[in-house]
Design a protein that fits this description.
This protein has helices at residues 2-17, 45-56, 118-127, 136-144, 147-157, 163-175, 183-188, 197-209, 241-244, 276-285, 304-315, 320-324, and strands at 226-227, 253-254. The protein has 334 residues and is mainly α. Strands 1-2 form a two-stranded antiparallel ribbon. The N and C termini lie far apart (47 Å). It binds heme C (2 copies).
Length: 334
């Protein structure tokens, strides 16, 4: 009898600690490559679900007021509409919250173009004084007091909530944020005739005449390099040099994706440009003479109509399916 009891007890424990591995199938849009998912964090439904809860839960900030979603809003393609988004106690850091569209493809994260994995990136906002101002070990301890999180954490990773689980679950959720059903995708990859003449003229300007695709290239509109696009002669933000301390990296920033760009104003690393028109006028001017400015940033002149065409094209990168996808919405609001 005692042995039977012990056996039941043991099986109960192992059954509990074995993660459930319900496969999660990423929906890869036409024209998109298969993304790399790290071996040590393969996608499962349990991991994605847990990451989604953590993304929307202010529990990861010191005073439980700020969540990832406070600065990365689904309706804005997981960017924000403020130049600088306030963190805990309204504190402001230095940079504009970027879209998370297609982050699964990014070889590096942040404007520095330096941090290699989403898992590592999670540590930044949690500990950053002007963002969540907390400590990921303490955040794990806080989650251990919540029976639902403990259960889900076992189901996802076979262990209690801790930094291992928090970093991996959030990354698993972020890897599902794929945006590939914009008007541009429908026209170019799905062979539907949905773009207007003006939008098509704008695409021709973007690709063939102004060579925006020297940097904003491919299905995700970035070549993932870090360059200086001539915003200032003197920058407040040292750019990639913040990570590398190299003079050639001063004031160079990762080329951002332009997916959902019409939703993610204001623009640039510091949110200093309010509209797409302002951005285009900047490129037309050829930019300020910074020593690291890319040779591809050269002055040109557009007519009023061409400028409008180019903006119409950029608006074609908005993906309504993405911003309305119920799989990405706040799981705590019905
Ligand atoms: C207070 C606002 C704020 C909060 C809260 C916040 N972020 Fe961010 N996020 C930003 C800003 C600003 C950047 C750009 C920082 C930089 O480049 O140095 C950023 C960048 C990112 C990036 C890099 C995207 C890319 O393409 O390079 C990811 C991924 C990300 N955040 C995920 C998260 C996650 C996950 C959380 C919650 C754990 C979170 N963020 C919380 C403001 C915020
Ligand atoms: C030499 C590379 C390069 C070229 C060419 C280039 N860009 Fe950029 N672009 C960048 C970089 C780098 C940034 C981010 C700079 C920053 O944040 O300080 C950027 C930012 C942007 C942004 C704002 C993105 C955001 O999320 O804030 C838009 C819009 C944009 N570019 C459109 C264009 C258009 C349109 C063209 C062609 C006229 C173009 N770019 C040509 C490198 C380039």
């Amino acid at each position: 009898m005692a042995i039977a009891f012990i056996l039941i007890f043991l099986t109960a424990i192992t059954a509990d600690e074995k993660p459930l591995l319900t496969p999660y199938q990423l929906n890869i849009p036409k024209g998109f490559p298969q993304p790399k998912i790290p071996e040590n964090n393969l996608l499962t439904q349990e991991r994605v679900d847990l990451g989604r809860m953590l993304f929307y839960d202010p529990v990861l900030s010191v005073d439980s007021t700020v969540s990832c979603a406070s600065c990365h809003h689904q309706a804005l393609a997981f960017a924000d509409n403020q130049p600088i988004s306030p963190g805990v106690a309204g504190r402001l850091a230095m940079r504009n919250a970027p879209t998370l569209s297609n982050v699964v493809y990014n070889p590096t994260l942040l404007f520095d173009g330096y941090l290699p994995t989403l898992e590592m990136q999670v540590l930044v906002p949690i500990q950053e004084h002007a963002e969540m101002a907390y400590n990921i070990v303490l955040a794990g301890n806080r989650l251990k007091e919540n029976a639902d999180y403990v259960k889900r954490s076992y189901e996802a990773y076979g262990r209690k909530p801790d930094p291992f689980v928090i970093t991996r679950a959030l990354s698993a959720f972020e890897r599902t944020m794929i945006s590939g059903n914009s008007k541009f995708d429908q026209q170019v990859y799905q062979n539907k005739k949905v773009m207007t003449k003006s939008e098509l003229r704008g695409m021709d300007l973007f690709q063939n005449q102004l060579h925006c695709t020297n940097c904003h290239s491919g299905f995700n509109f970035t070549n993932y390099t870090t360059v200086n696009n001539g915003l200032y002669e003197v920058y407040q933000d040292s750019g990639r040099a913040r990570a590398t301390h190299l003079p050639e990296d001063r004031a160079v920033f990762k080329v951002p994706t332009l997916r959902n760009i019409a939703l993610t104003a204001p623009y640039m690393h510091d949110g200093s440009m309010a509209t797409l028109e302002e951005v285009i006028l900047h490129y037309e001017s050829g930019g300020e003479g910074h020593i690291n400015k890319s040779e591809f940033i050269q002055p040109f002149r557009l007519s009023k109509r061409e400028r409008k065409d180019l903006i119409r094209f950029l608006e074609c990168l908005t993906d309504e399916t993405f911003i309305n996808n119920p799989d990405f919405s706040n799981p705590f609001t019905p």
